[in-house]
Amino acid sequence: MSKATTMPVNGDAPETAGPRRSRVSGIDRAVQILDHLQQEGRAQTAYEVARAIGAPLSTVYAIVEDLLDKNLLARSGDGGVWLGPRLYHYGLAYARDLQVINVATHEMHVLAREVGETVQICGRDGGMMVVEAMAEGPGHFVITSRVGTRVPLNWTASGRLLVAGLDETERATLFRKSAKASPTGRAVTDLTTLLAQARDALAAGVSIQAGESDYAVACIAAPVLDETGACPITVSIVLPEFRVTEEHANFVEAVKDAARRIEDKLGWRVGHFTAGRKYG
Q1: β-bridge mates for residue 204, sequence order
Q2: SS3 per-residue string spanning the chain
Q3: C-alpha distances out from residue 136 to 37, 104, 110, Å
Q4: Residues linked to residue 75 through DSSP beta bridges, in sequence order
């Protein structure tokens, strides 16, 4: 006598038809939505978000509405959603207790007054460089990047330095995945060249790029190395391209001095010397 077979209901496949898909929790979906919006850097509709993260549209709609109710998302004028004001307050509270950024921000303002140009503190998020703090210079030179700006590592002087602490294989994997052509077409994408530039920049304690990410804009960056030799942040001067050649030495020494002061205040330079590391 054969056993009765349970038939699928409403077109669903029987449980024995294949492996079950793992469930994604609501909080994981919420984080995916927030991460996606941050990476895109612009408002998007729930439909666009659902397609991008591979989630059911009905699920994304429900989570988006919940996040809107809690001010974690906000509606944009074009029918999309964007990061909400509650996230900003969380960020402010986090930043107040973040010693590294507090110390670096103080030295950033000191350096900006000294050189009369815009100074930025930058960090790394995967294969992207992120502007974490910024002090604008007194002049009329317009800087397009602002706090929160994210660009591929290979576009920036800081990107060559933020890979400190990674071994050569890890750097190669990171650059291979993240390197992209820049709007000016001048950013290096060749893996061998990027690895060599990173080695040279770390050895010199300074990295310089001109016109790679923005036309007529240059950047001189110095690494802030922690006690392990990793580079959690950089301090960089953003200036007109022509000024790099006119006052190169002065800017290089000023930005390296600022990086050293940050390390000193955080007690990180002791680690460089006790570990016998060379620092430019």
Answers
A1: none
A2: CCCCCCCCCCCCCCHHHCCCCCCCCHHHHHHHHHHHHHHHCCCECHHHHHHHHCCCHHHHHHHHHHHHHCCCEEECCCCCEEECHHHHHHHHHHHHCCHHHHHHHHHHHHHHHHHCCEEEEEEEECCEEEEEEEECCCCCCCCCCCCCCEEEHHHCHHHHHCCCCCCHHHHHHHHHHHCCCCCCCCCCCCHHHHHHHHHHHHHHCCEEEECCCCCCEEEEEEEECCCCCCCCEEEEEEEEHHHHHHCHHHHHHHHHHHHHHHHHHHCCHHHHHHCCCCCC
A3: 26, 15, 12
A4: 81
pLDDT < 70 stretches in the chain: 1-23, 96-97, 139-142, 270-280
Residue in the block written with tokens 């496949």: 13
pLDDT at 153: 95
Q: Which amino acid would we find at residue 173?
A: T
Q: Map tokens 């800017």 to a residue.
A: 251
pLDDT value for 22: 55
The tens digit of pLDDT for each residue in 162-204 reads 998 899 999 999 999 999 998 888 899 999 999 999 999 999 9
Measured between alpha carbons, how far apart are the two ends of the chain, in Å? 84
